[in-house]
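User: Show me sequence and structure for the first protein, then do the same for the second.

Assistant: Starting with the first protein.
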Amino acid sequence: MDKQHVTFKDLGIIDYRSAWDFQEKLLQQTVSLKSEARRTDPGYLPSELATEHFFLLCEHPPVYTLGKSGHMENVLLSETELQARNISFFNTNRGGDITFHGPQQIVGYPIFDLEKFYTDIGKYLRNMEEAIILSIAEYGIEGGRSVGETGVWIDAGTKGKERKIAAIGVRCSRWVTMHGFALNVNTDMSYFDHIIPCGIVNKQVTSIEKELGRKVDFEEAKEKIKRNFEKIFHMKLVESVFANK
């Protein structure tokens, strides 16, 4: 199978709402193209449709986001306390529960037309996990999976030592994806003290910095993510200068 070409852009530090709106714009462009093709030619082949894939990386100012199946009781701060700490909050249309995004955390948003990869959301999630597992392995960190819990974990099978290093939550419309993953690199972990991360009690969160006992080069970590996503998804990232608006 030929490699899928994927338009890549590093959005840098961007507020959560702007990044969400940009993703929605890209997703709706692709969904509209597919809907029109289906209307005019019910027998069209998805592989022949001129849809595009996008892969966005960014950092967000401090923000808590709640998935559509999440529970507000997992947010341990009041609205007033959030404002006092200068932390934003959003209800989102992704899967999953509550999570945190902030500086020195790699947030990745793949907007992929999965009909050109495979129509299997479970496989898509596992492949995202695998790309992150390979990336942290380059730092000597052994990541893995926790049964029934999406994301990348360390010591998932050792009760009391389980800790999550990357969260994943997605939305899919007509097999077009948005939202994605958040990998803690040199993230300030104290922000997680004010939520029950992903709604999972009695389990910790961690970062590459916390595991190694030192900060790592953030740009280097992003390059590892890019390279391993290319490998796992059998794709080629093509740098873009398109405007994120």
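Switching to the second protein now.
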Amino acid sequence: MIRLAALLISIALQLIAAIFALRLMRVTKYRASWVLISLGFLLMAFKRAIKLIQFLQDDFSFYLTMATDWLGVIISVLFTVGVFLIGEIFYSLKRAEIERNRSEKRLLNAILQTEERERKRFAKDLHDGLGPLLSTVKMSISALLQSKPEKENKDIIENTNVVINEAISSIKEISNNLSPHVLTNFGLVSAIKNFTHKINQTKTITIDFSSNTEDERFDGNTEIILYRATCELINNTIKHAEAKNIGINISKHRNTLTIQYSDDGVGYIQEDLSIDNQKGMGLSNISSRIKSINGVFIISSIPNEGTNALIKVKTN
């Protein structure tokens, strides 16, 4: 009785396995490997059915025994060839994953390039549109000052002239932040050096910048992404870290460009990056940008011991 129950359970399980295997053939696009494995499951159930017939009829004749033996051989062949060929499915899945990653990178690159074009267009509109208008107003104010107006009017005109000068300076600064001409004309190292110099002039934080690639140029998209990433790291430190010093080193060894970043701020707990906050989102954006150029971005921090970041990118 126990043997009968075991035979019935095994037949049921093998039929269930065969049905699921057959249903998955469409998903696997009827690849030979899965077809063979599905047939193997079916024949296993059929073999068990013969065993059940032998048991119920107490018929262990030569022909039935030979049939089960040869079914065993056929099943073994089907499974062996199926397993041998199943690598094709995994290779196909791997290719699909690679293609998906490439598509994501192409999409992200397209977004970043569109964003950068819009930055440049907006910066140009500010510089070429509002700049000349304010300069014209400044010339008119200067002409009024030369006409020796009354003291009360002169004070108003002089104050207006100061405001216009500040507006012109602000437009130049905004335009340069949106699309730094130094980055376009002189490259990554010069642009970051210029950015850190402006921050050092504020005396709020000290940035020690060094590089062994002073005059070297890299791919335009790579330079833009590395510049934005470095600026984002600096902004994060200024906003959140309460640091007094920042260290930045850009070095190139063979075909690898490395940016090492550190600050002496309050640091943070690594798990905090999973929280949807401004700092976490900023670092997530950096990581996405670096991945889009096949780079590596690693950041580590310990509370009260500062933050360290490493960026590595292949230059060719």
